[in-house]
Amino acid sequence: WDLGLGIYLGCGRKNMFSLFLAKKTKASFGFTIIELVVVTIIVGVLFGASLTLIDYQQKSGLQASLEEITAVIRDTRKKSIIQEAGAVWGIRFSRSFSGSSGYEVFKGMNYDIDEVVKSLSLGRGAEFSGILPDEFLDLFFYENGAASKNITIPISSPGVKFTGVVTVRVSGKILSNLEKGLVGYWLFDEGTGSLVLDASGR
């Protein structure tokens, strides 16, 4: 009887141990609902943070290009006002077939390669999307600071959600801003006709 009881108790302990081991193994390799929810939240936060970082990097690069070109336009206007070198000053914006864009500061009312004092590239993969490939746009300022014409030049980069916009009014006022998700930019400056062109390059 004692032997039988010992065997019975031994078997009972073994069964209990096997049950405990099974539960332990299941707990080690499985996930609870709470764990899945926590992991989902963490993944969502990391994904949102990565999108925010990408937007920030894209915006920063385009913002830098926008600030640089705005500063050059303001400096060109200042040259005309103070009559540096006894002349008015202008700036040419151009875009090549390859997609690269740049601008040149020149002396006088009309562009002359011999009168160019500064040539700059837009850089950072940005381009003047409002200017057709192999085309250019000239602008100069009078000695009273007024511009020769109204211009609006969108600046964009392929795959970037933001678009920079530089606007110069005949009054000499220079504006710049950064737009997100810009679908089109219509200037309504064609004068006459039945078509209005999208200046965003899209």
Give an overview of the whole structure:
This protein has 202 residues and is of the alpha+beta class. It has two helices and eight strands, in the order H-H-E-E-E-E-E-E-E-E. Helix content is 38%, strand content 24%. The strands form two sheets. Strands 3-2-1-5 form a four-stranded antiparallel beta sheet, with helices on one face. Strands 4-6-7-8 form a four-stranded antiparallel beta sheet, with helices on one face. The protein starts with a helix and ends in a 22-residue tail after the last strand. The relative contact order is 0.12. Residues 1-14 have low confidence and may be disordered.
Present the secondary structure layout:
Blueprint: H1 2-29, H2 33-81, E1 89-95, E2 101-107, E3 116-121, E4 127-128, E5 135-141, E6 151-156, E7 162-168, E8 174-180
Antiparallel strand pairs: 1-2, 1-5, 2-3, 4-6, 6-7, 7-8
Salient structural properties:
four-stranded antiparallel β-sheet, 2 helices, 8 strands, 38% helix, 24% strand
Quick recap:
The chain is of the alpha+beta class.
Give the beta-strand count.
8
Number of discrete helical segments? 2
Overall pLDDT: 79
Apparent shape: elongated
Radius of gyration: 33 Å
Order of strands in the sheet with most strands: 3-2-1-5
Helix-and-strand structural type? alpha+beta
Distance between the termini: 94 Å
What is the string of helix and strand elements? HHEEEEEEEE
- How large is the share of residues in beta strands? 15-25%
- Unreliable stretches: 1-14
Biggest sheet details: 4 strands, antiparallel
